[in-house]
Amino acid sequence: MFGYASKMLLCADRQRGFTLVELMIGVVIIGILILTGAPSFSAWIQNTQIRNAAEAILNGMQLARTEAVNRNAATRFVLCSGTTSAWEILATSTAVAAPTASLACGAGSNAQAGEERVQERSASQGSGNTQIQVTPGGARAVTFNSMGRVVANTFGDAGSASITQVNVSNPKGNRPLRITVSTGGSLRMCDPSLATGTDPRAC
Residues 38-54: pLDDT tens digits? Predict the structure, then answer.
């Protein structure tokens, strides 16, 4: 009886695990699945970067508008350049000296005496490969007054056109996003790739 039980246990041990052929088949199947899903995964990564950049710009504009109302002073949202999603928020302040150098904008900063840097964001924060296109061309700032409305730009951007639209895209992504700014100060993010009138997310 003991011998029979030992043989059964031995047979059970031999049946555990995989043969080399089974292992190789599993590796091949996993490899095929990875190769099939890689392009979709890559597009998903790039689209995530687009959303990160668009949300960061929208949040920055909303913060600038809120600060203008809370401080009862003009506050401007400034894009560091016309191609990346880096930005800074500069509020009118009684301070005489200009803010310290911007880490996000570097030479792109135009903070001046009489302003205070509220916040800044670098383009490398989760959206390094994104590209932006600003409307009107050449615009890089939008200034909000104490009522939260868009007014003429001040300080280093005095005389320049205000941002009315920012398109965020990625060469390898397929879901561009757009931020729009109305003269009343309302801000909206939408998807220009969706058909107008059929989806509330459409522009």
Answer: 566 677 888 888 999 99
Q: H-helix or E-strand containing 44? A: helix 20-71
Q: What is the pLDDT of residues 70-86, one digit of tens each?
A: 999 999 999 988 788 89
Q: Please name the residue that has the structure tokens 């840097």.
A: 117
DSSP string, 129-156: T-EEEEESTT--EEEE-TTS-EE---GG
pTM of the model: 0.78
Distant-in-sequence contacts of 191-198, Cβ < 8 A, 24+ apart: 192/167
Boundaries of domain holding 178 = 19-190
Q: Which residues share a beta bridge with 143?
A: 76, 151
CATH code, domain carrying 177: 3.55.40.10
